[in-house]
Amino acid sequence: MTEKLEIIQQLHIAVENDRTDILRAFISTIEQNDDHHQVISNVLNNCYHDDGTLLHVASKLGKIDVVRTLLSSGSDPGIHNSYGKTAVDLAATHNITKVFNEELLQAAAQSNVGRICQLLAAGVDVNLYDSEESKSTPLHWAASFANRDIIQCLCARGADVNQINSQGYTPLHDAIKRGDVEVITELLAYGADSSLNVTAGKDEGKTCKDLAGTRKEIIHALDNPPPLINIEEEFDLGKLSLKTDIGASTETIGMNGTAANGSEPGSPELKTPTFMKTVSFDDMIQPPHPVVTEEKLSLLWPQPQSMLQQETKPFVIRHHLPVYVSGGPAENSIQVMKIVKMRKPSFTSLGLDVSINLLSSLSDTRVPHLQCHVNNRLCPGHGLYKLTISQGQIKMLCSDYSSLHCAISTVYQLMSLYKENEEIIIPGLMIDDWPDLHYRGVLFDASQGRLPNFETLKRMIDTLVGLKINMVQLFCRFLKTQGWQLGYSKSEIMDLVDHCSDLGIQLVPVLEVAPQVQFDELDDIYSTIEDFMTCFTDSQFVSLGPRLSSFVIDTENNVLDVTDAVKLLPLRHNQILNICGYPLHGMDSELLIHLPPDVVISEYGIQADYDFQRFCSPLSSHGISYIMCPGTSAWNSLAGCPEAAINNIFSAVKCGDAHGALGAIVCNWSGKGHLTHLPFAWPGILVLAGLAWNSDCHQDYLYSNLGELLNRHIFKDTTNTIGHVIVELGRAETYLIRCCRGQAGGDSQKLPDEHGSTLFQFFFNPDAVPIEHLTPEALQRSVRHLKKCQQEVLKINLTCKDSEHIKKELSLTCDLMIFSARICKSLLLAGKNPMAGHAGYAVVNLGVSNLPATVKTDLANRLLELMEPYKEVWHKRYVVNVGLSESVGKLQNVFKLLVPGSDSEGLMTQQNHDDQVQHV
Hints:
alpha/beta; TIM Barrel; 4 domains; ANK repeat; repeat; hydrolase; hydrolase activity
């Protein structure tokens, strides 16, 4: 063991044995060096231990003095370990939690905004009490001691601006006593109530003006308050972090943007992203790298592994971009040129005239240009690339053709970020980049549901390559019937294989059989599967769904055998078999040693709280290759659940990166009814693409910037609106799920709901939806939120393909959500318990049939109005002969519940005829 490793081990031993003297001695020694801040930070804030940093370990073990020492020495409590937990999450006792609470109070008093952000990101309660005797919150402390920035920081993160402490003071009272006009003004801007009197103590009954006395500047501030920063009224979707909220609550807002008691979901908070790179001990003694100060660079997605700003003049181009390409000894320059030409449309979309030529001695390198060179000897490895941006050149050095695609994506994003009017000005940069997970992909259900039509699917592939995705899986569920069974034709699949191959993406078939297909019937559909598989002769992998995986797994004689797969299915000997992990979950983990080395396990887990660690750890310990398969959380809903998608994918990637997974595939399942439009799958896809490439990304960054990333990289919205609308619609839908369950805001268990979201269920079986915990007030907040979102859709200006169709899909989704909320509201009013407060629930679901006739008629007429636009929107971007009839059938079933014995199709036809006659 080296001396350096011994030091690390000794520090852990010191923590475990509560030896603060050893820690202080080490820190004291390091402080004698000129670069001691960098060295201490690298020691304290890197996860050398399985549990995380030294602070994680101390917090978990309940070492109070050690926690205090580490915090005072610069440990960051906001760092997540490989399981996604912070040191606050691991706090073993209340006393440990109290140490973190005291740190927040101290940071508030000292105006240490960076420390406050770290602690709140770690999960410390922004509305904690300093003691039971005082009951002062961090905002009270800030009002008494801190500056205006701290007030803004705390209020923006959910601090209760009107909380009263034991002395009867609100934070505004404390600020007035202190006499700081700026602090008073900031509190008033966040809704501090100047009409509240002191409720206890020596000043009981005094008003704010009484406390102000003769200080005219304070009285003037009270009489002339600034405009309210009101989360209920201000709906500014043009900002990185929305200040809108479903309810103007003063309850505690957690780090995931939800209230601690579940009644109010707060907005995602704007926090500075932290992209940490694990460093070796050798790195600690090196001078610190220059800090990247360009804010725009935080919007690159995926985030590069390493970025350094250079003190050089920027790279500037206006209209013409010369591109010179070359290859190494083992690489073909013509192939390099072919790839660059394929990606040329991205750059022409920026208004650039791109010329592509082979690099030679005659190439004009005196003008600003892009140089692409692929050479595995100069850039050894797989998926690696380097970018050097200087005044006259962007130099791109790639290890292989795959990394060339990735490098091109980064250059395009940089040019897009730094394009102003007719000019692109990129600062001097050095970028070294590589993927954390080798395979990064998306699974689409190609058998049923809302299938994007072929042109839409190809455009999605074009977007995916820009996010550095290198695998697309097509899920095909085979029935007993013979013949082609996909929603796409055979020629379309073959065209798609070629299109993906040209973009460096591997198209992988996922084979599954329907529930009615039995094991002994596989022979009957062998030729059907074989016909499908002829489209994938170049695919390196063949994946099996859970049912088919259970058919090919044999555990006789306590030996795990999968050789039946070759007998039962038309697989080639050079294709890697990828089986679903579900059938293995109930087996003895010791059987895993019998799996052949060329078998890969797909570990599917689609809920926010799914424990990937439980099943992946045994696979890793037995040397089994596996791929993480979280979900987009965008099925069985109207607008998806972005919060669940972030939590689920973050957990999957962190687990996979820590235990050596081959890759991560985000699954967009079809679900039932197929009411969810395609834009709501993009949040999960975007998150997976970024994290699978660079997993060192804080969850807070995703909560705060997801909408902006969607605007920038998916929809290209010049108004910076659509991404925020998508996120907010999902938040509103998730909010009602929690309200229906009586679930706490910070609780992500069982999200998304396996039966579908609350609003979604009203389209399937409204009589069975549990509404006992719902209130008309909560529903009204949601409806107001939805209507604001719908108003914002009108402002959207997309520069991507299908822009008008996408806007119509969002507007229609808002209509469907509001309609579902109307059904819910009607049931709430009809089922109100007259004895509420004395016996039973406040409300019960009496069923649609018990609604007043006029209410049912109004609902039926509105649903009738929505059906035709629903079908028209489907025809624009989705396969018509798959899923549409089933989806419309669900709407018609609701119509029949509202108007029994009616024919919605006939009424729609008559309505269309009447409209045409009226128009004539």
